[in-house]
Design brief:
The protein is mostly beta strands. The chain folds into two domains: 36 residues, Single Sheet (N-terminal domain of TfIIb); 54 residues, SH3 Domains (SH3 type barrels), CATH 2.30.30. 8% of the residues lie in helices and 29% in strands. It is elongated. The termini are far apart. Belongs to the YjdM family. InterPro entries: YjdM, YjdM_C, YjdM_N. It comes from Pelobacter propionicus (strain DSM 2379 / NBRC 103807 / OttBd1).
Amino acid sequence: MTNLPQCPSCGSEYTYEDGDLYICPECAHEWAKTATEVAEATSVVRDAFGNVLSDGDSVTVIKDLKIKGSSSVVKVGTKVKNIRIVSGDHDIDCRIDGIGAMQLKSGFVKKA
């Protein structure tokens, strides 16, 4: 089974290929195959205030974050240096002093 993208218009998973186009049978939306690849390549990660984040940036945590499976907490104002942008729900990979390696959501940080 092939992995076709979901429809950008209605979110349907029942898309199909027709030449150089993807077509959604539910809303009849058509889009080019290259448009999907360009959109994935240009995805931008932004912090809670809309600033663009990139690899090597420093960020500050804006909310107390409980660490799953532990009793420790990442406090407000904790500065994290040298972040790395990754794909997924938690889009920042970093190392926090005193805690170790972890992943953060970009909505809970601001660019320092």
